[in-house]
Amino acid sequence: MLCFSRHVVHSGKLPEIYVRKEKTLKANFLSGAKTAPELREIGAGLFAYVQHGSWGYSNAGLITSGGASLLVDTLYDLALTRSMLDEMRRATPLSSTPNIVVNTHADGDHCWGNQLVGGARIISSRSAALEMRELSPKLLATLVGTARALSRLGPARRFLASLSRIRVPRLPALAEAAEFVVECFGSFHFRGIELTQPTERFDGRLTLRVGDKTIELVEVGPAHTKGDLFVHVPSERVVFSGDILFAGSHPIMWQGPVENWIRACDRLLALDVDVIVPGHGPLTDIHGVRVTKDYWERLVVLTDRGRRAGASTAEIARQALQEDFGGWSESHRLVANVDAIRREQDGGRSRRHPLDVMAIMARFGRDLK
Ligand SMILES: [Zn+2]
Predict the structure, then answer these.
(1) Torsion angle, CA of 146/150/156/162, rounded to 10 degrees?
(2) Is 225 within 8 Å of 255 (Cβ atoms)?
(3) How much is the pLDDT for 322?
(4) What gap in Å lies between CA 345 and CA 356, rounded to an integer?
(5) What residue spans of the chain are helical by DSSP H?
(6) Do 145 and 223 contact (CB within 8 A), yes or no?
(7) Residue 102 burial by CB count (10 A; 0-12/13-18/19+): exposed, middle or buried?
(8) What region, left, alpha or beta, does residue 6 occupy, with left being phi > 0 and alpha being psi -120 to 50 degrees?
(9) 3 state DSSP class of 275
(10) Residue 118: what pLDDT?
(11) Ligand 1 centroid from CA 110, angstroms
(12) Which of 26, 215, 221, 335 has the CA that lies 20 to 30 A from 364?
């Protein structure tokens, strides 16, 4: 029996919901509804912290044993991270100060609360640690503030954005995506966050001990970002997948290549686990990995077919929504994924700037309405 109370707790085997079948193009543009997060016991001394909502509302985890503890990911801002740590402290005294924090990748919603776990060893892949330097919380705060101001300007913002003397990075893209950027990131508090880098980095694979538990960190990026990893707890048959899995919503491929994301799914499929804590969305199991692998494989085929037929990226994405992928939330990400795959198939190696990707998604979302 699963319990969905605010505090812990449930134990026993999942699976849970992964795929929602309703087919609607518009209603799923953004699933902004947010209910209270849940801390759920998923094994002996093992917890998943599950947030609900859209962009930036990520999951985290806690592994405790023999007086030691390991936190999988911090959250997007200090208030969210503080409230998660308080909840964990109420559930187990072992988590008062985690000994180790693992960041599954460089996105802020998985590491911008790091400053609240001072004194802990903070571990990520080397690639993720490097990528963390590319966007500061301060810059994102500025971008959201500018987007908020631009969104109030209406059509005049396009003229403003064309003025080269205004020095905001990628202003035309920001003007295009202004409302969308505010909708995605406007509810977080990025001011006051000090980028707190990992104290230890690794390449490939790292084995850790937490009390009497063995923990395997396995780097599978670049895929969602440059340095994704998952955290496997073999004794409890649990894995924390980071953003290799978005349960119930479209994933987004900032980095790729897509073949590497598919390989990452294969590495998850090779594990003997009962519970998977995705980077976003409800708890899932191996079925969630199969669905994600299938998503990417089908998108590769659809994109290739569409581009050979001369369809635009938006047309391919719209077709994909109608055919197969209408049931997941955050459907605007589909156009970003088709765009990334298409660029790969056209032989391109470079990635678009994230703000340009946001502009493409914003335009697609407007067209869907
Ligand atoms: Zn995330």
Answers:
(1) 40
(2) yes
(3) 84
(4) 19
(5) 78-91, 126-131, 137-153, 156-161, 171-176, 178-185, 258-269, 286-308, 313-320, 333-345, 354-368
(6) no
(7) buried
(8) alpha
(9) strand
(10) 82
(11) 6
(12) 221
Kindly list the protein residues that place their beta carbon closer than 5 angstroms to ligand 1, a single-atom ion.
58, 107, 109, 243, 279
Q: What is the pLDDT of residue 8?
A: 32
Query: Can you give the pLDDT at residue 11?
Result: 34
Ligand 1 centroid to residue 243 C-alpha, Å:
6
Q: What is the pLDDT of residue 244?
A: 98
CA 109 to ligand 1 center in whole angstroms:
5
- Token readout for 34 is 């947010």
Contacting residues for 82 by C-beta, under 8 A, at least 6 apart: 113, 116
Question: What one-character DSSP code corresponds to residue 55?
Answer: T
SS3 210: strand
CA of 29 to the centre of ligand 1 (A): 17
- For 33, the 3-state DSSP assignment is coil
Q: First and final CA of the chain: distance in angstroms?
A: 40
> In a 10 Å sphere around its CB, with 0-12 CB exposed, 13-18 middle and 19+ buried, how is residue 121 labelled?
middle
Measured in Å, residue 224 CA sits from the centre of ligand 1 at 9
Averaged over successive runs of 10 residues, the pLDDT of the chain (369 residues) comes to 29 33 31 72 94 92 94 97 93 80 98 94 98 92 87 69 61 83 92 95 98 97 97 97 95 96 98 96 95 95 96 94 78 95 92 91 86
User: Is the distance from CB of 238 to CB of 230 less than 8 angstroms?
Assistant: no
Give distance in angstroms: CA of 217 to centre of ligand 1.
18
Q: Which residues pair with 242 in a beta bridge?
A: 278
What's residue 94's pLDDT? 64
Say what the pLDDT of residue 143 is: 87
Cα of 60 from ligand 1 centre, angstroms: 10
DSSP 117: G
Q: Which regions of 174-248 does DSSP assign to beta strands (E)? A: 200-202, 205-210, 213-219, 229-233, 238-246
